[in-house]
Amino acid sequence: MRERLNKLKLSYKISYAVALALRYIPDIQATYWDISAAQQARGYELSSKAKLSTRLKGASNIIIPLIFSSLERINTISTAMQLRRFGSKKKRTWYTQRPFKASDWFVVILAIVLFGITLYLFKLNHGRFYDPFN
């Protein structure tokens, strides 16, 4: 999501804010239903059968804890972003793939050769490890 918004030449701060907001919509919905179930368990009437004043009072008993839990979540996220110095630079750097160098190919080939030697020695010894009594 953020990458697509950045390709549209939007600021990375705006694209991150949009992606973060969309990410937490399901969490807020789940919190809403949890608070609603807790309030109904306490005996608050929230169905359409109740009077309007009772439903408004029940809705406020859901919305206020939902706002406080959302503010707590926002505080946690903003603290984490500040600790990671989000937004300290004007321009964002992105991870890019680098081509293999000769030393990278050497390590890959060395690993394959060592693996082959291990398989050969395993087959040579019939799958047994070192046994000092043999």
From TrEMBL:
It holds the Pfam family CbiQ. Keywords: Membrane, Transmembrane, Transmembrane helix. InterPro entries: ABC/ECF_trnsptr_transmembrane (IPR003339). Coiled coil: none annotated. It is a multi-pass membrane protein. Its main location: membrane. It is found in: Membrane. The chain crosses the membrane at residues 102-122. One of its GO terms (cellular component) is plasma membrane. PANTHER family: ABC TRANSPORTER PERMEASE, PROTEIN ABCI12, CHLOROPLASTIC. This is ABC transporter permease. It comes from Ligilactobacillus murinus DSM 20452 = NBRC 14221.
